[in-house]
Amino acid sequence: MLLGSDAAKISSGALGCTFESMAYNASIGGSPIKLYDTSGLNEGTKGAVPAKTAIINLYKLIRNMDSGVSLLVYCIRGPRIEDTTVNNYKMFYEAFCQKNVPIVVVINGLENEENLDDWWGANKEVFESYGMHFAGHACVVSTKGKKKDTGKYSFEEEYEESRKTVQKLIGDHQLGIPWRMERNIWFVTVVKSAWNWLALLFGLPKVVLSSVLYFALRMTGITEEEALETTNSVERELK
Q1: 3-state secondary structure at position 218
Q2: Taking the CB of residue 115, how many other CB atoms lie within 10 A of it?
Q3: SUPFAM superfamilies given for it (predicted)?
Q4: Phi, psi of 31 (to 5 degrees)
């Protein structure tokens, strides 16, 4: 919708099709931006991407994003809020970006609603009851629909209006100065790694090299030991 072409792979199946983060160049209001279509977490009943793998990929993406992050756009298909809906919100906004980046929500799949904005008015409190608060919102039609005998699509006008709405949402809420994830100082990483080596020899508790990734992994129910070992393995790989 934002690119004005079928550049991004989409799916209507039970499982999502976004296996890794993909970057797309776009323009909003004459200003160039880069959009990242990120890995899905626990999509459908089983998920297209194992949660652990998706979390690691997302952490690597944000950690290595030298240009920083200006805005989180959370796309949710109406009308239900599931456990994964809340977990994904916490994963991106609270764990990875530590509430330093504004987050907006785009509710799609509302082709059968007479007034799109009425949907948000009726459901806003439900999101807030789950602790999900957004800097802005957009309720949209995400497909042009079927082609009619006239040559036009059934939701063509609504689709174009939705595109403008999402563009304005992004333009209004993105940070002027992008936020960057803080990386461990080299010396601190060396000291922590040395401690873990001694801990292995003397049976002492290990320390985690990245509290951000560790917290994100623990949110999905991964054990303390596995989260610690996975986190430290990823950090050693990135150094």
Answers
A1: helix
A2: 9
A3: P-loop containing nucleoside triphosphate hydrolases
A4: -105, 130
Domain boundaries, the chain: 22-173, 186-238
Spatial separation of the C-alpha atoms in residues 84 and 235, rounded to whole Å: 26
Both structure tokens of 169: 């949402």
User: What does the buried/exposed string (b/e) look like for 137-165 if buried means 16 or more CB atoms within 10 Å of the residue's CB?
Assistant: bbbbbbbbeeeeeeeeeebeebbeebbeb
Instruction: Take residue 21 and report the two structure tokens written for it.
Output: 């983060």
Q: For 156-203, write each residue's pLDDT tens digit.
A: 888 899 999 999 999 999 999 999 987 765 445 555 656 555 666 667
Integer angstrom CA distances of residue 34 from 18, 31, 65, 183, 220: 17, 10, 11, 22, 29
Alpha-carbon distances of 77 from 20, 43, 89, 109, 153, rounded to whole Å: 20, 12, 14, 6, 21
CA dist 109 and 140 (Å) reads 7
Q: How far apart are CA 98 and CA 162, in angstroms?
A: 29
- Residue 79 CB neighbour total at 10 angstroms: 13
Written as one string, the DSSP assignment of 2-56 is -SSSS-S----SSS----S-EEEEEEETTEEEEEEEPPPSS-TTT-SS-HHHHHH
Contact 175, 115 (CB under 8 A): no
CATH architecture of the domain with residue range 22-173: 3-Layer(aba) Sandwich (3.40)
Can you give the pLDDT at residue 47? 46
pTM more than 0.70: yes
Task: Please check whether residue 230 is in contact with residue 216, taking contact to mean a CB–CB distance below 8 angstroms.
Answer: no
Q: Where are the alpha helices (DSSP H) in the chain?
A: 51-63, 83-89, 116-129, 156-173, 186-202, 211-219, 224-238
